[in-house]
Amino acid sequence: MSQNDVSPLLSVSVLQGRIGTIAMSNPGCRNALSCELLTALDQQLVSFAEQRIAVVILGCDPLQGVWSAGHDITEVLAERDPVAHGKPLDRLLRRVRAYPGVVIAKVSGSVWGAAVDLVMSCDLVVADRSASFTMTPSNLGVPYTTSGLLRFMHNLPIHVLKEMFFCASPLDADRALQFGVINRLTSPEQLDDVAHAMAVQIAAKAPLAVQAVKEQLRILEDLQPMPVEAMERIAELRRQACESSDLREGVEAFLERRPPVFTGAGA
Prior knowledge:
Elements: E1 10-15, E2 19-24, H1 35-50, E3 55-60, E4 66-68, H2 73-79, H3 88-98, E5 102-107, E6 110-112, H4 114-121, E7 124-128, E8 132-134, H5 137-140, H6 146-155, H7 158-167, E9 171-172, H8 173-178, E10 184-186, H9 191-203, H10 207-222, H11 228-242, H12 245-256
Parallel strand pairs: 2-3, 3-5, 4-6, 5-7, 6-8, 7-10
Antiparallel strand pairs: 1-2, 8-9
Keywords: Lyase
GO molecular function: lyase activity
Organism: Pseudomonas wadenswilerensis
């Protein structure tokens, strides 16, 4: 693979012809999910699919302490609703879930906000004991999407999900393993070996059979009928939150490193 095809925000390699690795590599911004990084990840998955890469390992450069800081806060106000359908994050999550192979999240360090959703969208998760998962939308005044919440409901008990979203409290590696968010929990020294061993095991299986099972599970997860009235109510609640003064206050408070003062008022 030509280095010219790889974004400077990513380190990419192909192992044994059937395993692709993608490492987010923007430590200065703690791998924040900017539109540029989200687009680069999306395009790389398209490239791997064209190459018929059976297993993708998604990680970050080692020794950063942060897997990803979540959405690039400087872009949140411009995006207004950065998790909405059709935005770069939504496109990437859909790409991960529809990838015609297995995507393994290899997690070392803390995972924040939208990056937690990215991990949840992967097929398998291998992590070391430094891993933690924190949902921060309520700190910023960002209402999360129904599709995103459904992904969390498939992975977590409802009361743990509420704790994560209401309190913005981290889910540490041990609790994440307990609730099945993590498939394999290992030491930092063994993380690469464990993720690679799992990828090798999967890559040796019949690819069409694996792809068929993954797609069936994706479709079954998406079978969530919802009345039109409920969808309209959710859309209105999200619109009010996105247009409120609290969203600007949340972002400005984060950038100014002070506690936000939320009022629940409109724009």
